[in-house]
Amino acid sequence: MSSRRIRVVRPGDLGAGDIETWRELRAESGAPAQPFMEPEFALAVGRVRPHARVAVIGEGAGGTAGFFPFERGRLGHGRAVGLGVSDVQGAVLRPQLPLGAKELLRACSLSTWEFDNLEERQGLFEPDAARSHASYVIDVGHGYEAYEKALRARSPKFLRTTLAKERKLGREAGEVRFVLDERDPAVLRTLMEWKSAQYRRTGRRDRFAKRWIRGLGEFLFHTRAPGCSGLLSVLYADDRPVAAHFGLRSRTVLSCWFPAYDPSFAKFSPGLVLHLRMARAAADDGVGMLDMGRGAAVYKDALKTGELRVYEGTSARPGAGAALHWLGREPSRRAHDFVRTRPRLAGLAQRGLERAGRLREPKRP
């Protein structure tokens, strides 16, 4: 008979001992110190998502052996905590814990658990992945100078052009300076406005139109913990913000999250200048890796040194709830994959989204 005990609580009901154990188990995992996998991220989501929960897994006399953050919806449909903005997902478990996905879902009263950025080596859920994606990273573990030397050898024209544009920005717009950790909330609001406009321009869903996502970002901006701190980095020209990025950092990993820039400065490529400045400053502050997340982009191809893998899919227990989830999600997911793997169709779809975005833009007087 198993001596395992699983209790489900709201993130805010975790005790200080639970949070410390979570941090210890995460450190013992040997995985990169991703801020999204720390208790502070689940605690922040719990403040803005009322259905956020954490399963606390006890194992015999050995105490707590793991944590599983999730959100529970109708008919027992579950999802990764913060799904839609969480760039790394999964459970935090003692190594070699004999636990099955179906047992965990049953204890959480879940028929399914959906993920779209499942971390590598999440053996509990990885067998249920439908597809994998590259998450692009910048390795600055040997210092920024080593990274720039490699970048110069691999993409000399890109680096030369970006540095030239930074100098031109200084000549034409005023003195350029960079702040790694900006504490002015007004600049965060400016970044959110830029990002919302970018989403609309490109025909994508405006994440910051959702109150919970805006509230999550604002709360994490003020979060300060060793494994998860909000970090707003800003590129200024003549004391005017021209590009900014808001992400989460641990001691050694900066998870890139929301980058954007003022479109009136587009000719200077301020977003690229920002990323190079950010890589340098973060490396000097002890960060060894910047994780730019999944999703192909020209700037990521230019800046990356390597890739991690993240997984998308659904774990399910047999039953009506799982069947309904499959019927609701799988056809559209397969259609998306069909378009994504055919460049001509993907290009047509993107141009259609951009045209729709322009139509939604307010008319200028």
Average residue-wise pLDDT = 90
Task: Give helix % range.
Answer: 40-55%
Query: What's the CATH architecture of the largest domain?
Result: 3-Layer(aba) Sandwich
The largest β sheet comes out as:
13 strands, mixed
CATH class of the largest domain: Alpha Beta
Which ranges are low-confidence, i.e. pLDDT below 50, for 5 or more consecutive residues?
none
CATH level-3 fold name of the largest domain: Aminopeptidase
Query: Based on helices, strands and strand pairing, what is the structural class?
Result: alpha+beta
Please tell me the total number of domains: 2
Query: How many DSSP H or I helices?
Result: 11
Q: CA-to-CA gap between the ends?
A: 73 Å
How do the SSEs run, as a string of H and E? Answer: EHHEEEEHEEHHEHHEEEHEHEHH
List keywords for this structure.
single chain; alpha+beta; Aminopeptidase; 2 domains; 13-stranded mixed beta sheet; 11 helices; 13 strands; BioF2-like_GNAT_dom; Acyl_CoA_acyltransferase; GNAT family N-acetyltransferase
